[in-house]
Design goal:
single chain; alpha/beta; 7-stranded mixed sheet; 7 strands
Length: about 500
């Protein structure tokens, strides 16, 4: 099982180029330590960036900087196995771990240089602490001292939840859900235990105390509206995303029959925990707070419901599915598990064949640009946000290059100035002309980089604007990226591809 988890997460780990968010990881990780841990600069906490900062001292290659996520994703499978085994048995643990291993959504974010695999691992470590506490509580209701509470899982719970909170802000929803575990754990026996209550309160209060500096920093960032690019999903879209994350799919298309089987097994697994009220309460709360509550939060605050922020909920979905499978008759359970594993393997194959991951290919167009462009050429970004990802792969310092952007929303050109350091290049955009002479512009070749400008009419407007002085000579299509070469209309020479 663990070997398969390693194989699925390390296979072709460094093949894809960095995409925009991963380049943002490089930028953030390069900040001074004082900025990284003290200044309110970013809506994402600093733990993951700190790990990447240490990694960058060795290399900034794609494989190396994605390595932590692959390790975190693999360990998530291991800890999920251990937690499910404590809750139910080894058969359920194996089934849940296999399905989590073959979840393409979890594989995708275990191969990305972002914090989502880390927060999932920290959350399941914390939950393992809860499962351990639950196992000991069911054996004895009177032997808990504060020291025993920490030793039997309380410390693991606290360390895990604190690390999760410093990995991603959405971990706060897991923390709230964990309180339902305690309610079911403490209230059900109807035995008041002052030591138990004090121990739970002390651990959670310490977590809050240690998290407070980042909480205040996050509140400052929220006031600056840095997160306003996210939109609130309609209910139908939210359900689609949830099903995609919490099911096993041979492709990214939704298959109702498979989803129905997963849902029935999830419910059947949860019903099996009806005598274990604390775990039933906890797993129900985990599913609700990783989906419905995160989605509903968008109506009162900044929308945060997207595929990667609800990903951690799939860990608990697959735990329940594994328990559901183990509750079936032995032969039926084995046949269902084999069928789901085969579907998962087909999904993994499709994921790698069709490159369904989120990142675009910036490395390939940069290679063409490096080979064929001259310093006098103009670089035009049709939509401005991909500039850092593309420039990461461009050879040499580009700070003196003339750069244009195209605002797909305003349908007008922008003027840019490249700012570079050792690991990161960005462009500052302005609507005002920096003083370029019209003749100098129209006499130069223009390289147009396009990605995610979904407004086709805006693209047509920019093409008409270019066609006033240039003609398209070459076009190169890559994954979710297009590079076009436009030469002056009076040019007789067209640079040919060296591919």
């Amino acid at each position: 099982m663990l070997t398969l988890a390693v194989a699925t997460r390390f296979y072709r780990l460094g093949d894809a180029s960095f995409w925009g968010d991963e380049i943002f990881t490089l930028k953030t990780a390069a900040l001074p330590w004082s900025t990284l841990w003290v200044t309110a600069y970013n809506p994402t906490p600093p733990l993951y960036y700190s790990i990447i900062r240490l990694m960058m001292d060795v290399s900034v290659s794609e494989w190396w900087l994605r390595l932590p996520s692959a390790v975190f994703g693999t360990l998530t499978v291991l800890f999920a196995y251990l937690a499910t085994k404590k809750i139910w048995d080894s058969h359920a643990a194996l089934a849940s771990a296999l399905l989590l291993t073959l979840s393409t959504s979890n594989i995708e974010y275990s191969q990305e240089g972002r914090a989502y695999a880390l927060v999932g691992m920290c959350i399941v470590i914390s939950f393992l602490g809860l499962a351990s506490l639950n196992a000991h509580w069911r054996k004895s209701t009177s032997e808990f001292t504060f020291s025993n509470f920490l030793k039997e899982g309380g410390a693991l719970y606290g360390i895990g939840v604190l690390a999760a909170l410093y990995s991603h802000n959405t971990a706060v929803f897991f923390w709230i859900a964990a309180q339902f575990f305690f309610l079911g754990w403490w209230v059900t026996p109807f035995k008041f235990s002052r030591t138990l209550l004090a121990s739970w309160f002390a651990v959670n209060f310490l977590v809050l105390l240690l998290w407070l500096p980042w909480l205040f920093a996050s509140l400052q960032v929220i006031e600056t509206d840095m997160f306003t690019w996210l939109r609130q999903y309609e209910l139908q879209d939210a359900v689609r995303v949830w099903r995609l994350v919490n099911s096993i799919q041979p492709s990214h298309r939704l298959h109702i029959l498979i989803d129905a089987v997963i849902m029935v097994l999830t419910f059947w697994g949860w019903i099996g925990l009806r005598k274990n009220v604390s775990m039933a309460s906890a797993l129900f709360a985990m599913l609700v707070f990783s989906s419905i509550v995160i989605w509903a939060y968008g109506f009162i605050g900044t929308p945060v419901f997207i595929k990667r922020t609800v990903l951690w909920g799939s860990i608990f979905s697959f735990m329940l599915v594994g328990i559901g499978i183990s509750r079936l008759p032995l032969l039926a359970g084995r046949l269902v598990l084999i069928a789901l594993v085969c579907i998962g393997l087909a999904g993994f194959y499709n994921y790698n064949q069709t490159n369904k991951a989120e990142n675009q290919d910036w490395r390939s167009p940069a290679m063409i640009f490096n080979q064929q462009s001259s310093q006098d050429d103009i670089l035009l970004f049709r939509t401005t946000w991909p500039a850092p990802a593309f420039l990461h792969y461009v050879d040499n310092d580009q700070t003196d290059r003339r750069v244009l952007g195209w605002s797909c929303r305003k349908r007008q050109p922008l003027f840019g100035k490249i700012h570079s350091n050792d690991v990161y290049s960005n462009v500052a955009w302005s609507e005002s002309n920096p003083g370029w002479g019209a003749g100098n512009i129209t006499a130069s070749t223009v390289w147009v980089l396009q990605s995610a400008c979904s407004d086709s009419e805006s693209v047509d407007v920019s093409n008409r604007w270019l066609a006033q002085n240039w003609k398209r000579a070459n076009s190169y299509d890559f994954r979710q990226v297009t590079l076009q070469q436009w030469v002056p209309k009076n040019s007789k020479r067209i640079k040919k591809s060296k591919e």
